[in-house]
Amino acid sequence: MQLGMIGLGRMGSGMTERLTEHGHEMHTYDPNVATRTADSLQRLKEQLEAPRAFWMMIPAGEITEQTFHQLLEIADEGDTIVDGGNSNFRDSKRRYVEASHRGIHFVDAGVSGGVWGLEVGFCLMVGGDDEPVKRLEPVFKALAPENGYAHVGPSGAGHFVKMVHNGIEYGLMQSYAEGFEIMEHSEYDLDAHEISGIWRNGSVVRSWLLELLHAAFETHGSKLEDIAPYVEDSGEGRWTINEAINENVPTPVIAASLFARFQSRDEIKFSARVAAALRNQFGGHAVRAVERAKAGSDPR
Predict the structure, then answer these.
(1) pTM higher than 0.90
(2) Interatomic CA distance for residues 155 and 135, integer angstroms
(3) What is the DSSP string of 217-243?
(4) Mean pLDDT over the full length of the chain
(5) What is the number of alpha carbons within 13 Å of residue 69 lying toward its C-beta?
(6) Catalytic residue among 45, 93, 162, 236
(7) For a FRET experiment, which of 2, 64, 269, 293 has its CA 20 to 30 Å from that of 22?
(8) Given pLDDT bands bounded at 50, 70 and 90, which one contains residue 296?
(9) Residue 230: which pLDDT band, with cuts at 50, 70 and 90?
């Protein structure tokens, strides 16, 4: 079937290629990519036959909001807009209502698979009405590996499930990080690359994330010395914790993993200084002096 892909970054380009390989007719738009088939959203619409399907594979936030409203202006009744980015599920529920008022379908699709999705398939968690989801199932099934796609519920459900998925991912990643940190500081001269390698086979902690960590050690060395200790977050962990609070559900692991990412960005570590100063004040515990920077360097 035909599909208009909006966004040809790492995920969008891989999805476009996978769908093409499965016989789907792909038309594309990305203002930053020369190989697109259309130079505007209007031109993309003209390349598609009604009822059309537009798939947004762009960053969540303002760019998705702007593109969604541009599509609302040009789409015809019966067309479908799919958001495959990591949008907040509450935004997706709102967009569903806005689209419905114009007779346009809106489907939220949580997508997991990263840059490996082209080769092994993308896990798809889809939310929306039965009619547009059913019509687009050939696309969903072509993108996903066997048993890797589900229509998980109504509007917003796809992005809600993807949000929780990413919150779990935060906790898994942090557990691996802390385990290897313990081994790094142990009395033994342990080879992280070797250990991550054997854990992939028969161990109860084996996973795809562990396979990726092993590949990272293989590329960057067991000490990962060329990777800065700065961990970003794209919002889903925060949203997961917010929803846990709203639902009175304790999520200490996910919360701690998010705070660990915050801590990785604090070069000054002021909280540690506060704690050290307090220990000195109430207990007379010694504090470690800061090494003075060399002349000409930042005095911090």
Answers:
(1) no
(2) 16
(3) HHHH-TT-TTS-S-----SHHHHHHHH
(4) 91
(5) 7
(6) 162
(7) 64
(8) very low
(9) confident
Name the active-site residue from 17, 65, 169, 211.
169
The full DSSP string for the chain is -EEEEE--SHHHHHHHHHHHHTT-EEEEE-TT-TT-S-SSHHHHHHTSPSSPEEEE-S-TTHHHHHHHHHHHHHPPTT-EEEE-S---HHHHHHHHHHHHTTT-EEEEEEEE-GGGHHHH--EEEEES-HHHHHHHHHHHHHHS-TT-EEEEESTTHHHHHHHHHHHHHHHHHHHHHHHHHHHHTSSS---HHHHHHHHTSS-TT--HHHHHHHHHHHHH-TT-TTS-S-----SHHHHHHHHHHHTT---HHHHHHHHHHHHHT-SS-HHHHHHHHHHHHHH----PPPPPPPTTS---
Contact 118, 14 (CB under 8 A): yes
**65 a catalytic residue:** no
Q: Note if 162 is an active site residue.
A: yes
Q: Pick the more confident residue, 161 or 235.
A: 161
Tell me: the pLDDT tens digits for 16-25? Answer: 999 999 999 9
Dihedral sign of CA atoms 249, 254, 256, 260 in order: negative
pLDDT reading at 293 higher than 50? no
**93: how many CB neighbours lie within 10 A of its CB?**
18
The more confident residue out of 237 and 91 is: 91
The 10s digit of each residue's pLDDT in 28-51 is 999 999 999 999 999 999 999 999
Q: Which two tokens stand for residue 130?
A: 């039965």
